[in-house]
Amino acid sequence: MSYAAPLDVVPLWAFFLAAVFGIVLAHETGYRYGRARGRRANKENDSLVGGMVAAELGLLAFLLAFAFGIASSRFDARRQLLLDESNAIGTAYLRAEMLSEPHRAEVRRLLREYVDVRIAATQGGSVEHGVQRSEALHGRLWAEAVAAAEKDPRSIPVGLFVTALNEVIDLHAKRVTTGLRSRIPMPVWVVLFAVAILAFAAMGYHGGLTQTTRSPALLVVAVTFAAVLWLVADLDRPSQGLLRVSQQPMIDLRNSMEPLKR
């Protein structure tokens, strides 16, 4: 199963350049059309067009803030779930010490392998493979828990371990859902790009209509808006880009487990 969103096939640097190019092209197209319309005797009222341009830009700013809010809130959720998961694995690892042999050693070994898989999946490894390996380890861990419970169905330590293991499995599902499946919907991106193109085309149209010269400040504005779009896209991609959730809690957990080296 692939967890990639449609826009993930576009590298972030290409996404940024495409946004800048699209904004500049939209402005230039609107400007030329505005110049052609401005030569007519019955051209539109400049102030009325300016008001509509301001409304378009305000709507674009609102949509950018809306998309940024979605991306940043999910980024925070991924960070919190990572901390919760590392705590849950640590608890299961400690409670595994109360199991009888051979379950104790095997469970602790599997949990160390589980943490290694989780770290590797976020440090250049395949996310899909990491999810599959994690779910396979869930089955092996649960089998060990069942075997331990069958030996002593009334054992309180076994019950505590089963509860901790169940929490680990639940948090895995939450991390997959929040980090890989809960992305900014494609219709939001489509509307955001459409409004951006139309807003800058309207800005260019107003400039052409009033017969003003092209300003170099347009490039600054284009880069600024494209940078915000890039930031939203970066926050929305859990395994790409510069803004990633730090795996330090999971690394610290792995360092606290023994043996540290295989």
Q: Your description of this structure?
A:
With 262 residues, the protein is mainly α. The protein contains 8 helices and no strands. It has helices at 12-38, 46-95, 103-122, 127-151, 156-181, 186-209, 217-236, 248-256. Helix 2 (46-95) packs antiparallel against helix 5 and helix 4 packs antiparallel against helix 5. It is rod-shaped, with a radius of gyration of 27 Å. The protein starts with 11 loop residues before the first helix and ends in a 6-residue tail after the last helix.
The N- to C-terminal Cα distance equals 30 Å
Q: Report the order of strands and helices.
A: HHHHHHHH
Number of helices: 8
Q: How much helical structure, as a percent, in the residues?
A: over 70%
Rg estimate, integer Å: 27 Å
